[in-house]
Amino acid sequence: MTLYQLRGGSNAPKTKIQVGQSLQTTAQYEALLEENHNLKMQGYSKILGIRDLFPLPLTDLAMLEMGLKFIPPQYQPLSIPYDIVVAVMEIEAWFLPECNHYNCIDSNLTTSLIATSNLGFNPCFDDVTQRNEPAKDLHKIYKLVGKAYKKRKKPVERTVDCLDYADMYINFQKLGELIKHIDDFLT
Questions:
Q1: Is 9 helix (H, G, I), strand (E, B) or coil?
Q2: Residue 151 and residue 160: Cα distance in Å, rounded?
Q3: What global pTM score does this model have?
Q4: How far apart are CA 129 and CA 115, in angstroms?
Q5: What one-character-per-residue DSSP string does 60-99 give?
Q6: Tens digits of per-residue pLDDT, 8-37?
């Protein structure tokens, strides 16, 4: 598997990424990001993307999701099907309510400790889709036991390795949406 780091934003250069992985078969899965109409000409049949809503406010979610479905008329005959799932507000919002993982991060990081802290919210019971900066919230929770969450490879891998994906799939609609798109594509 080849891993590439991408950066977005208005000043970022156009980025092309190819990721391939053989899954104990001869099949190879690739993701190639560039203009949609060029992908069709190259034989691609589907695009699946994920993006954060942040820094836009939560009130812009519906408008963003609607805008992501728009294909300019001149490209419609050339375009291929695509779906873009918006992680509300950041992808870390998918990690916050998965309360089984906290004890894996540190055995002292219990749901009781989190509930009795002065965070101002409880990720195990509150609707975290309303949180403006979930990555900062995750950092505050980990900090209760002297740990940190940063958007860097090692801390993210540590968190991802601890997550209970079945719980996330069942309880977090946007992740379920993404998994369904992937499952539909692969079956």
A1: coil
A2: 12
A3: 0.69
A4: 18
A5: GHHHHHHHTT---GGGGGG---EEEEEESS-THHHHTT-T
A6: 444 444 444 444 443 344 444 444 445 666
